[in-house]
Write a structure and sequence with these properties.
246 residues; alpha/beta; Spore Coat Polysaccharide Biosynthesis Protein SpsA, Chain A; seven-stranded mixed beta sheet
Length: 246
């Protein structure tokens, strides 16, 4: 299937991802020309303390399509994504994490779905199978069931950060979270703005480098607090009529 989107920004947040972010950038730069002739890669280095900054500087010197944004201190997953989205200049935004647990080349699958559903503004991946330790699979399953029920989300996998959406959708879905709650806020605000997702199966891989920044008590507590505030805020937001069929 020939896919030609108007233009695409690929956004990757990175925190201590020196061992994986180079491959994410290189694979994205290989996949993007297959779906558009106008593209860029935006990486937000969110105060990494390893050698992420050095490898990104080397890559930026080689590839003019790569832009690197740097936070001098760690501001959180949500803050990194919001900075990347604000910097994105193309019509479509694709994003996933910088830890290489998803294959950036499967962006092509999302683009195929976008081309097959011209009215859709939001393409969401869902994991074929979760490749994580048992405790993370259990916590992830509980989190998925809780937020899907509490927030009324129309997704089969609320915890899959592998998405493609039209940039102008952000104008109807202003974001506020700075923690891992940002991904949940994003899809809920999309839903409230009237967008409906087209869902695509994608692969999920074992983490090969570093450790999760989400699964520790301090970050879980911070995310839980933001989830509560977000639920209270969004429950008072009236939904818009649906604008794109799934």
């Amino acid at each position: 299937m020939t896919v030609r989107l108007s233009s695409v920004s690929a956004v990757f947040p990175a925190y201590n991802d020196a061992g994986t972010i180079p491959s994410m950038v290189l694979v994205a730069l290989r996949a993007l020309p297959q779906v558009t002739g106008d593209y860029e890669v935006v990486v937000v280095n969110d105060g990494s303390r390893d050698y992420t900054a050095e490898v990104l500087a080397d890559l930026a010197a080689l590839f003019p399509q790569l832009r690197v944004l740097t936070h001098t201190r760690n501001q959180g997953y949500g803050a990194a994504l919001r900075a990347g989205f604000a910097a994105a200049a193309k019509d479509w935004i694709f994003y996933t994490d910088g830890d290489a647990q998803y294959d950036a080349h499967e962006l092509t699958l999302l683009a195929e779905a976008a081309a097959a559903h011209p009215a859709a503004a939001w393409i969401n991946g869902y994991k074929i199978a979760r490749s994580d330790p048992l405790h993370r699979r259990i916590i992830g399953g509980l989190y998925h069931r809780f937020v899907k029920l509490a927030f009324g989300l129309p997704l089969r996998d609320t915890d899959c950060d592998f998405r493609l959406f039209r940039r102008d959708l952000l104008a109807r879905a202003p974001l506020t979270s700075t923690s891992g709650a940002l991904a949940l806020e994003l899809v809920k605000r999309f839903q409230l703005a009237g967008a409906r997702p087209v869902e695509v199966p994608v692969h999920h891989y074992h983490r090969a480098y570093g450790g999760s920044q989400f699964f520790n008590f301090r970050r879980l507590a911070r995310t839980a607090a933001q989830l509560w505030r977000l639920w209270w805020q969004l429950r008072r937001t009236p939904p818009a009529p649906p604008q794109a069929p799934a």
